[in-house]
Amino acid sequence: MSQLPNCPQCDSSYTYEDQNMYVCPECGHEWSQNGADNASDEPSIKDSNGNILQDGDTITVIKDLKIKGSSQVVKVGTKVKNIRLVDGDHDIDCKIPGIGAMKLKSEFVKKV
């Protein structure tokens, strides 16, 4: 059995191969087997379709999102301009028209 490297993000030993990538099932981190992805210090944040997001992009919400602690809902199709990418679980910081400042997960948006 070949020895696979530990995850560079969480140091998990449960990594596995997926085509030409290594994948960590614990934190979800993926990296290239040849190490080419490590050249960039900034992680890429992707929308639900796999498009890479950048600061200042315009996105559209693809699912009704209930706002925790409120009766308000961010409706499908809401367009959000001038996003800012941040670290963490909710990786998009933005201002939603009619609601205000909010953090969103990239898996619930698509790039316009």
UniProtKB/TrEMBL annotation:
Q: Protein YjdM N-terminal domain location, by residue?
A: 3-32
What InterPro entries would the database entry show? YjdM, YjdM_C, YjdM_N
Name the SUPFAM superfamilies on file.
Answer: Prokaryotic SH3-related domain, Zinc beta-ribbon
Pfam families xrefs: YjdM (PF03831), Zn_Ribbon_YjdM (PF08274)
Residue stretches making up the Protein YjdM C-terminal domain: 45-112
Q: Which family does it belong to?
A: Belongs to the YjdM family.
NCBIfam families (alphabetical):
phnA
The protein in question is named: Alkylphosphonate utilization operon protein PhnA
Originating organism: Kangiella sediminilitoris
Its lineage opens with:
Bacteria, Pseudomonadati, Pseudomonadota, Gammaproteobacteria, Kangiellales
